[in-house]
Amino acid sequence: MTQVDPVDQAAELVGREFAMAVVVFHEAVGRLLGLSAVERKCLDLLQRLGPVTAGAIGEHTGLTTGAVTRMVDRLSKAGYVQRCPDPHDRRKVVVQLLPNERMDALMATAFGPFVGDMTAIMGRYDDNELSAILDFVRSTTDALLANTRRVTRLDPARPDG
């Protein structure tokens, strides 16, 4: 019988608890806006990147083209985004975040205390430790996106696959 390394077991548990906390937090924030966690994170993506194509949303989220199209349709109907001609290439369409004071106020309420908590946590580490932490988070993010794409391709119910 193979022995499980207690450090590996603890690391797996911490990772699972962390992932659960992130998903549950973003689901709660999404509910404030009447959105799913993925829809809410799409709005975050648009806030960070500005207007982008649906293809770019898919690249950043790991979602299929069909899933992105349906999500943009829902966000457009809810008044959060609009499709616009790409100013650099009129043959393309970009998805643009619309101004929304209600969303801004709810986001400030939801994230203000969290940002303060994260600032305090980050202040506990020196530059070398922060560099290692950020490398870990970036690498984990890349692995999550790659595995989202992989799992999405396996889904037999996927409408565009």
CATH fold node name: Arc Repressor Mutant, subunit A
CATH class membership: Mainly Alpha
Please tell me the CATH architecture by its name: Orthogonal Bundle
In the sheet with the most strands, the strands line up as 1-2
List low-confidence stretches.
none
Largest sheet: 2 strands, antiparallel
Protein name: MarR family winged helix-turn-helix transcriptional regulator
InterPro entries: HTH_MarR-typ (IPR000835), MarR/SlyA-like (IPR039422), WH-like_DNA-bd_sf (IPR036388), WH_DNA-bd_sf (IPR036390)
Domain HTH marR-type: 28-130
In short:
The chain is mainly alpha-helical and 161 residues long. It has 6 helices and 2 strands; from the N terminus they run ααααββαα. The protein has helices at 6-32, 37-49, 54-61, 65-77, 101-122, 127-154; strands spanning 81-86, 89-97.
What can you see in these coordinates?
There is one protein chain. The chain is mostly helical. The protein has a single domain (6-154), classed as Winged helix-like DNA-binding domain superfamily/Winged helix DNA-binding domain (Arc Repressor Mutant, subunit A). It is 69% helix and 9% strand. It is built from 6 helices and 2 strands, in the order ααααββαα. It has helices at 6-32, 37-49, 54-61, 65-77, 101-122, 127-154, and strands spanning 81-86, 89-97. α1 (6-32) packs across α2 and α3 packs across α4. The chain is globular and about 60 Å long. The protein starts with 5 loop residues before the first helix and ends in a 7-residue tail after the last helix.
